[in-house]
TrEMBL record:
Pfam families: Bmt2 (PF11968)
Keywords, sorted A to Z: Methyltransferase, S-adenosyl-L-methionine, Transferase
Family, as annotated: Belongs to the BMT2 family.
Protein name stated in the entry: S-adenosylmethionine sensor upstream of mTORC1
Species this chain originates from: Oedothorax gibbosus
Superkingdom, natural source: Eukaryota
GO biological process, one term: methylation
Its job: S-adenosyl-L-methionine-binding protein that acts as an inhibitor of mTORC1 signaling. Acts as a sensor of S-adenosyl-L-methionine to signal methionine sufficiency to mTORC1. Probably also acts as a S-adenosyl-L-methionine-dependent methyltransferase.
GO molecular function, one term: methyltransferase activity
Taxonomic lineage: Eukaryota, Metazoa, Ecdysozoa, Arthropoda, Chelicerata
Residues reported to bind S-adenosyl-L-methionine: G125, D143
SUPFAM superfamilies: S-adenosyl-L-methionine-dependent methyltransferases
């Protein structure tokens, strides 16, 4: 089982490395991503490895799935949203009576309390739709290369987001996305899959567009380092998301994961899908600075970081 685990993990990290290496030499994120889309065999190999890791190797140890579920339950049903709004009001030290009344109104009129309908959840990079088992969620699961039939094939980078509609969207063979149509967007182990910081920024901005006001963005990234090792990166990501229109409501560092939850706190942003890339430098990972040499088997860079990348999936016995 251990050798199979390592083989599958090497497949995953090998694809990540291929994308970053391609970006290093081409300096063209769009070209790298388009080539990846066209390489169907590589994508299927990756998807099959991830599906097997998730459903066989890591089966029954669903730490990231349970963390997301529990966080959403606490936030929407057990007072988490009210606490976040109250904290925001105090931080802003509102003095105007009008503003106080507005904030108190938001605190007392929680649309998510006593809801009869399910929370609409978008799982990006889903692979196998793991959140469908929870009765609280109505799931839309998408992936560039789905691992199961209930996941819709979709390139989230290229989707067009249509204006908000108050009418029921007719059934169609083509998946459409509208502004302010989801309660939850989940990026689980997907942002670090993207080779370019600009692509991560577009992902986060599109999540902001798709979420309703006070909706929740979940970001989970692999991290086997110590608690404080990547704190500068965590703070930098927080800054980027705050600029887009989010406020962080929860953060946990688990043994091999960084788990973050952000509330959409604004209905208007000073950015759009094009200009948001000015924040790209904030959504970095330690591996983004790796240096490669052509026609050399061993790449020049931080050996410790190389080992760190390889360990992410080999040390994640609970990610599914």
């Amino acid at each position: 089982m251990e050798s199979e685990h390592k083989k599958l993990s090497d497949t995953i990290t090998g694809v990540h490395e291929h994308l970053k290496r391609s970006l290093f030499f081409t300096k063209d994120a769009n070209k790298v991503w388009q080539n990846h889309i066209e390489d169907e065999n590589l994508r299927k190999t990756y998807s099959s490895a991830m599906l097997k890791l998730a459903t066989e190797i890591w089966s029954g140890k669903e730490c990231r799935i349970e963390w997301t579920y529990n966080t959403c339950r606490e936030y929407f049903y057990n007072g988490g949203l009210q606490k976040s709004l109250s904290r925001e009001m105090k931080l802003k030290q509102i003095s105007s009576q009008t503003n106080k009344e507005w904030c108190l109104g938001n605190l007392t009129s929680n649309d998510y309390e006593n809801m009869k309908c399910k929370l609409k959840l978008l799982d990006v990079g889903s692979c196998y739709n793991p959140f469908a088992k929870f009765e609280e969620f109505s799931c839309v699961a998408i992936d560039l290369t789905p691992g199961t039939e209930d996941v819709v094939q979709c390139d989230f980078l290229s989707i067009d987001i249509l204006p908000q509609t108050n009418y029921a969207v007719p059934l169609s063979t083509t998946l459409t996305f509208h502004e302010k149509s989801f309660d939850i967007v989940v990026f689980s182990l997907v942002l670090t899959y993207l080779p370019a910081t600009e692509q991560r920024t577009v992902f986060c901005f599109k999540a902001w567009q798709l979420l309703k006001l006070h909706g929740l963005l979940i970001i989970i990234s692999p991290d086997s380092k110590s608690l404080h090792h990547n704190i500068p990166m965590v703070k930098s990501w927080k800054q980027a998301l705050e600029n887009i229109g989010f406020v962080r409501v929860k953060y946990d560092k688990l043994s091999h994961l960084q788990c973050m939850a952000f509330r959409k706190c604004r209905t208007h942003s000073e950015f759009d899908v094009a200009s948001c890339v000015s924040l790209a430098h904030l959504l970095y990972t330690p591996q983004d600075n790796k240096i490669y040499e052509e026609d050399v088997c061993d790449d020049v860079g931080d050996r410790e970081d190389d080992d760190f990348v390889c360990k992410q999936f080999s040390e994640l016995p609970f990610v599914s």
